Amino acid sequence: MIRIENVTKVYRNGEIQLTALKGVSLHVKPGEFVAVMGPSGCGKSTLMNLLGCLDSITSGKYILNGKDVSTLSGNELAYIRNKEIGFVFQSFNLLPRMTILENVELPMVYAGVPARERRARALEALARVDLSERIKHRPSEISGGQRQRVAIARAIVNKPSVILADEPTGNLDTKVTVEIMRIIQQLNDEGVTVLMVTHEPDVANYAKRIVRMKDGCIIDDYPVQNRTVL
Amino acid sequence: MNLMENVKMALASIWSNKMRSFLTMLGIIIGISSVIAVVSLGQGGQHTITGEFEKIGANTVLITVESSKAELSDYITLEDVKQLKEKVPYIRYATPVFQVQGQANSRLKSKRAYIIGGTSDLYQVDNIELAYGRFYNDAEYEEGKPVAIISNSAAKSLFKMEDVVGMTLDIGSDSAKKSFTVIGVVKNQIEMFSDMTNEDNLPAIIYMPATTLKQLFGMYGATTQVYIVADSKENIESAGNLAVKLLENRHGNRGREIYKAEPLMKQLDQINNVLGIFTTFVAAVAAISLLVGGVGVMNIMLVSVTERTREIGIRKAIGARTGHILFQFLTESVIISCIGGILGLIFGIAGAYGLGSIAGISPYISPGTVIIAILFSSAVGIFFGIYPARKAARLDPIEALRYE
């Protein structure tokens, strides 16, 4: 599924060099639910960006679904982001000028899906996150929890094999957090692999496995005992 | 990702910033409309002039005497004109044109007169249209009868009525006048400023046989200008050349290049050339404003790219390729320019008719002008949109996502 070996990432800003990842290796099997934890600046966001094919690795190897993606071009990476990966962000990242429905349809626009099929699949994805009303509204007209559900619908609409969630509940209160985590667990139960960055132990406890990072290295990797199951 | 999708997205984005989009378009609107107005007025002017020339006669040739070289004996006499018409095969009509300033008196009124004399062919050569009566005939010409055809405005001013056929009129110089019978009235010609000027102030235009005119003013009766009309377009040149040859034979001045034959259509070409150059020049100046409009489009697109950095990041994260983003922004700038172009076209045509009605030129809007205007405005959109669009397409997705 996901296999990275000895991956480093170095940022250069003029004279200053910043090594964000110092030889990280990780193997995630299909159907896993991994929480990546660690203090800020530990490199967990960098890891997520690399796994999400938003950024290229400096050295090492990244195999996604049996394909070496460390050598792909920008447009090939865009294709993989579109087909294989679904992103869920802390700040939802919905397009404010589009309706809920249009937001969910957008990944399929880039995939070249015909309009009629787009509409049907978007409605289906929205139904899976329990959101069938207000779909003609704009993101600013619905609550934070609803926005994150729209973002999840958008992430799953192209039926990706992996969902990458970067602090998906960071901007939400406890009650809504539970709602969102229930949806993510459901998706995981249906076979979608989930990688989630979080710094809250409560949230990490919804996962099946926890990876701890510090200073650009993985320092701990263990299965979750007494997992919270909704 | 097809074109319709892009156009829909671009329209939504333009619509969400109505005021800004309109102001951006304004540059294009002003540019296109001024170019359209100038070009269609210029072409309208050319059409008007061409039309006038064609009315006079596409087959007309002007025979002139080079007055700097000519002696009195070289001038073209009435007998020469007669011979031209009889002897030269391709000539259908021939007339000299004498123009004399004089005086015309009716019982009611005295008026300045502008007297034109020729053969009876003058009627066809000058394409005179009569409202009442008739033009003088060959017999009246040969005998030098005191008959006159006067302009409509002269009739109204001298007799206070329009149909003055059969009335008598004293025509001549201040000292010597002769009594004439009016046999025709010329239809009112559209004269510039005719509405603004009292017709009493316009000189009376009077046509009469050249023979009569000659007697009236006691002239030598030779001229430097003769109009001939060829029987067909193909024979224009031959008619001119043969006419010059005949005149040279009759005056025995071959080799001195006294006479020159010039088809009127050639003059038209020259006038149209000058007008064309002038139109192009003014249009080029107007096109500069289009360029400024294009820079405005680029400016706003750059602002728009910066404002929407995060949006671009999101789009890239969910799978938009470089080409998708490039095309999205390019579509937007092309649509802005195109809408500007179409509005500019409408305002330009309206402006051309507005200005045209003031200047007395009816504008000519050719399909070519319309097509070029639309194509040119899209080209402006592409040219000035490509830089901002490339900038947007090349944004790094992570940095774009982080942008606040």
Sum up the structure in keywords:
heterodimer, A: 230 residues, alpha/beta, Rossmann fold, 6-stranded mixed β-sheet, 4-stranded antiparallel β-sheet, 7 helices, 10 strands, 28% strand, B: 404 residues, alpha+beta, 6-stranded mixed beta barrel, 13 strands
Model description:
Chain A: It comes from Thermoclostridium caenicola. Chain A: Residues 2-228 form the ABC transporter domain. Chain A: This is Putative ABC transport system ATP-binding protein. Chain A: One of its GO terms (cellular component) is plasma membrane. The complex is a heterodimer of chains A (230) and B (404). Chain A is an alpha/beta fold and 230 residues long. In chain A, helix 5 runs parallel beside helix 6 (174-189). The model of chain A has no long low-confidence stretch (mean pLDDT 92). Helix content of chain A is 33%, strand content 28%. Chain B has 13 helices and 13 strands. Chain B has a 6-stranded mixed beta barrel. In chain B, strand 4 and strand 5 (110-118) form a beta hairpin. The longest helix of chain B has 44 residues, at 264-307. The mean pLDDT of chain B is 87. The A-B interface holds A 49, 52, 54-55, 74-75, 78-79, 81-83, 87, 89, 93-95, 97-98, 106-107, 109-112, 154, 158 and B 1, 5, 12-13, 16, 310-311, 313-324, 397-398, 401.
**SS class of chain B:** alpha+beta
> End-to-end span of chain A in angstroms?
26 Å
Percentage of residues in helical conformation of chain B: 55-70%
Shape of chain B: elongated
Tell me, what's the shape of chain A?
globular
Order of strands in the sheet with most strands of chain A: 6-7-8-3-9-10
Largest interface: A-B, 26 and 22 residues
- Helix content bin of chain A: 25-40%
Radius of gyration of chain B: 33 Å
DSSP E strands of chain A, number: 10
In what order do the strands lie side by side in the largest sheet of chain B?
Answer: 4-5-10-7-9-8
Along the chain, the helix and strand elements of chain A come as EEEHEEHEHHHEHEHEE
Largest sheet of chain B: 6 strands, mixed, barrel
